[in-house]
Amino acid sequence: QVQLVESGGGLVQAGGSLRLSCAASGRTHSRYTMGWFRQAPGKEREFVAAISWSDSSTYYADSVKGRFTISRDNAKNPVYLQMNSLKPEDTAVYYCAADPSGIPLIATAELGYDYWGQGTQVTVSS
């Protein structure tokens, strides 16, 4: 089993920044692609960003491209989501997810990830 714990959420004004962290423990493996998803009230969970284990390539949802940056210090620990120029529509619970398949392709669907954190709330005030 793999446990993922997110941190770094909070309340910020529009235009501000936050950095989310995702720490993995348990049966971790270097060949995990890591992703961030978010779920706003009354909406379905949606893909935000992901980083591949193989070459650290990244992929972003159009809604956050140019504002958010996903990164990792090494293949195992931790994964970060730097969020700049935040907008009220970024308000959501943010989830970290891990894809242990070892496939060097980035999945944008929830089904591509086997492990999930509990989420951290991000609230952006206007």
Structural overview:
This protein has 126 residues and is an all-beta fold. It has no helices and eleven strands. The strands form two sheets. Strands 2, 4, 5, 6, 9, 10 and 11 form a seven-stranded mixed beta sheet that branches. Strands 1-3-8-7 form a four-stranded antiparallel beta sheet, with no helix packed on it. A hairpin with a 6-residue loop joins β5 (46-51) and β6 (58-60). The protein starts with a strand and ends with a strand. The mean pLDDT is 92.
Average pLDDT level = 92
Main β sheet profile: 7 strands, mixed
Shape: globular
Question: What's the total helix number?
Answer: 0
End-to-end Cα distance: 40 Å
Low-confidence stretches: none
Q: What is the chain-wise order of helices and strands?
A: EEEEEEEEEEE
Structural Rg: 13 Å
Q: Per DSSP, what share of the residues sits in E-state strands of 2 or more residues?
A: over 45%
Class inferred from helices and paired strands:
mainly beta
The helix fraction, in percent, is under 10%
Tell me the total number of β-strands: 11
Topology:
Elements: E1 2-7, E2 10-13, E3 18-26, E4 33-39, E5 46-51, E6 58-60, E7 68-72, E8 79-83, E9 92-99, E10 115-116, E11 120-125
Parallel strand pairs: 2-11
Antiparallel strand pairs: 1-3, 3-8, 4-5, 4-9, 5-6, 7-8, 9-10, 9-11
